[in-house]
Design goal:
Distance between the termini: 27 Å
Protein name: Inner membrane protein YpjD
Number of strands: 0
Helix content: over 70%
Number of helices: 8
GO molecular function: heme binding
Keywords: Membrane, Transmembrane, Transmembrane helix
Largest sheet: none
Pfam families: Cytochrom_C_asm
InterPro entries: Cyt_c_assembly, YpjD/HemX
Length: about 260
Amino acid sequence: MTIVLIAIALYLVATALLIGGVRQEPTRPSRLWLLPAVGGVALHALAHLLAWHASGGADMHFYAALSLVALGMAALTALVGAGGRMAALGVIVFPIAALALFGYHHHGHVLGERLDWRLQLHAWMALLAYATLAIAALLAVMLWAQERALRRREFHRWLRALPPLVELETLLFRTIAVGFALLTATLLTGLLFVENLLAQHLVHKTVLSVLSWLLFGGLLAGRWRYGWRGAVAVRWTLTAMALLILAFFGSKFVLELVLRRPA
């Protein structure tokens, strides 16, 4: 419990420092937030490792998976922000990670399941893909908000915390490209290593994941061939991410929390 509370506190401190940096001097943001953010990520990961050690295996229940995806998002945000780009993303991501960790600690602990290396590889690929593409979805929302504010000539202070529009758009597509590669690896490892899809209630997950994969792939192809950007990129990204959320967390929510069956 102590580790969880300290991790949550560090996430919130990092968030407060980021908000304070924007309010005080947005043109020269401080990196003081990075130390508590990295500490929060490290303790978040440690909380999962200790829980897995106590339960005898990896826990991939709904709340555990949600917390792990949030952990991945927080780690990616700290990594990208350390390079001086999109640190403002932490204002959204770090509270999400704190809330997900709190939910996991209070509701998510179940007996761990020992998986062989092939299924572990598939599961970790999936979690990394979801975390990366969730970051892409947040970047898409920020891109939409930035474009909307500029069109209306509403020069809010928070706009200064974001990179220029072209840079933000470039970062969005690079993130989508990485997430698409991870999602491709997830689908391939699932095809190779997961057996008996019907018995494991995975058909709906596979169909929705493939649809999401097609949308992300189509967006990248459209960007390369036709120069798609702006509102088109935002719509495709958010639609594809919605399908991915339904594929994984939607099905886990219904099966595990509503029907009380393993996902």
